[in-house]
Amino acid sequence: MNTIFDVLADPTRRRIMDLLRERPRLVGELTDLLEISQPGVSKQLRVLREAGLVQVRKDAQRRWYELRPEPLAELDEWLESYRHLWDERYDRLDKYLQELQAKEKNDDQK
Amino acid sequence: MTKNKAPYTTPSDREFVMERLFDAPRELVWQAWTKPEHLTHWWGPKGWTLPVCKVDFRPGGIWHYCMRGPGGEESWGKAIYREIVEPERIVYLDTFADEAGNPIEGAPEMLITVTFTEQGSRTKLSTHTLFTSAADLESVLAMGMVEGVTQTWDRLEEHLASL
Hints:
The structure holds 2 protein chains of 2 kinds. Chain A is mainly α. Chain A has helices spanning 4-9, 11-22, 27-34, 38-50, 72-109, and strands at residues 54-59, 62-67. Chain A has a two-stranded antiparallel ribbon with strand order 1-2. In chain A, helix 3 crosses helix 4 (38-50). By secondary structure, chain B is of the alpha+beta class. Chain B has one domain: START domain (Alpha-D-Glucose-1,6-Bisphosphate, Chain A, domain 4, 2-Layer Sandwich). An 8-stranded antiparallel beta sheet of chain B has the order 1-2-8-7-6-5-4-3. The A-B interface holds A 3-9, 14, 17-18, 21, 67, 69-70, 72-73, 75-76, 78-80, 82-83, 85-98, 100-101 and B 5-6, 8, 16, 18, 20, 22-24, 28-29, 32, 38, 41-46, 125, 127, 129, 134-140, 142-143, 145-149, 152-153, 156.
């Protein structure tokens, strides 16, 4: 099972997501825009669908591929946790530096 | 002192920057970042301790540490110092490792640059993260491209600005 990170690591898949962000598209359009073969595009679309990043909407005989942004919340959470990590470190460092300086001051007064 | 919790910025799709001003002279902040006897007091997340912290502070040297959580859980980290410019800058590669220092396969690697800038009697600290491993985090950072995410960040930034 690919993680969302694996899925998005591929530049072609990122390009597809970019194009789908503009609007839903047909495979043929993607093939033209990306200048790769239709089987190639279909293969990448399958990976994106399995990851839940893309969904298909059927309209008569046509299949529209559209973006499904929900899984990207994972990335957002990851980034938020990274921010949080640094925030906590900074908080602790700040407190520790205050303690060190208070101690220095005390030592000086002795 | 008021809490100056900093928002982060993402100058490019592979970078993450956070800054904060500390009410302490640069020399002291530098010591706190580079000496194990200081690092053990603050490096881990809140409520965690640092039972192991070995620092070989020179370019190419390794900083290997263990963080222990309130429930006894352990997380090992290994950093490799790339560049040291006392007292202004430290560059290191941040990785995940096991107790023996072996890298954990597939874990992200980040190149961190810590910059210490004097501002009168205070010190501005800036940590700049460059995500280096291709597979996982380069892609996190495809994030700029994706709407839902960007909107959330905008909200987060607004929120932080309002604090």
